Write a sequence for this structure.
């Protein structure tokens, strides 16, 4: 028996290949991510960070910010993570490094993190055909527009000519 249904076109969500990125382009990653008390306590305890600034509300109330802070490593992980679906999903080979990480202002429970990524460098790999090195500057802002995190990230990515696919 032959199927009378037309063949469907399937489009898989992916990031961009290194040769699709251009220096100076800025990507706004939306939606934002509201970081909750549960997120902060879970991340902090999973990573064995016993810092009272993340876990002890009474003690933190007497500190300069007057409340617990969202763990800066959770802020960094979310900052990078927000860029994945738009830029590197299925197109990254490896993360090469993070530099210039800064947290100019803290995030608190209930704050929403919005991330933008500027492409600051793109070059073909000299030792890995079909791959390239991309440098990205991530900037995270809270719901008030205050910069709360920045980081420079280098990644090794596939080129569109290599078209490596992620298994379904």
């Amino acid at each position: 028996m032959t199927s009378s249904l037309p063949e469907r076109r399937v489009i898989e969500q992916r990031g961009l290949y290194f040769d699709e990125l251009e220096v100076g382009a800025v990507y706004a990653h939306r939606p934002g991510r509201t970081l909750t008390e549960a997120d902060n306590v879970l991340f902090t305890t999973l990573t064995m960070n016993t810092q009272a600034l993340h876990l002890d509300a009474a003690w933190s109330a007497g500190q300069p910010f007057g409340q617990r802070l969202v763990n800066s490593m959770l802020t960094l992980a979310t900052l990078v993570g927000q860029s994945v679906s738009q830029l590197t999903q299925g197109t990254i080979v490896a993360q090469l490094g993070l530099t210039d990480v800064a947290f100019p202002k803290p995030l608190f429970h209930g704050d929403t993190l919005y991330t933008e990524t500027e492409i600051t460098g793109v070059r073909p790999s000299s030792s890995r055909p079909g791959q390239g090195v991309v440098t990205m500057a991530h900037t995270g802002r809270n719901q008030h527009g205050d910069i709360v995190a920045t980081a420079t990230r280098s990644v090794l990515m596939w080129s569109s000519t290599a078209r490596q696919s992620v298994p379904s």
User: Anything to note?
Assistant: The helical segments are 37-46, 52-55, 57-61, 72-88. The two ends are 28 Å apart (CA to CA).
